[in-house]
Amino acid sequence: MTRIKRGYIARKRRTKIRLFASSFRGSHSRLTRTITQQKIRALVSADRDRDKQKIHFRRLWITRINAVIREGIVFYSYSKLIHDLYKKQLLLNRKILAQIAISNRNCLYMISNEIRKKVDWKEYAGII
């Protein structure tokens, strides 16, 4: 039986995988079997960490807003601010509030003061 030389298709597939793993270290970028394992692992990690990134950024925004609000002259907590924002139906999400807190604290103080003026303070005192 004559010897059949393999075509270029398998080599093309392997080089495509190697391009993905070119930044890996050691045998993870050279051996085909370990490249495929590392590729699967990298894609799984990327998928998982995209969800984690959203959680981490939300936590960061909340921390920034809370820190700036508590620095103010009159004590006002993050949870009360968000509660009052929902009550007044203001469309400011946490990302925008955190950007305002970093760039212009006085603006955030003005927003919180305007909200506090309009909200009935008897609720916080527990009278109602």
TrEMBL record:
Any GO BP annotation: translation
Location in or out of the cell: Plastid, Chloroplast
SUPFAM superfamilies, alphabetized: Ribosomal protein L20
GO cellular component, one term: ribosome
GO terms, molecular function: rRNA binding; structural constituent of ribosome
NCBIfam families per the UniProt record, alphabetical: rplT_bact
HAMAP family linked: Ribosomal_bL20
Protein's job: Binds directly to 23S ribosomal RNA and is necessary for the in vitro assembly process of the 50S ribosomal subunit. It is not involved in the protein synthesizing functions of that subunit.
PANTHER family per record: 39S RIBOSOMAL PROTEIN L20
Protein's name in the database: Large ribosomal subunit protein bL20c
Gene: rpl20
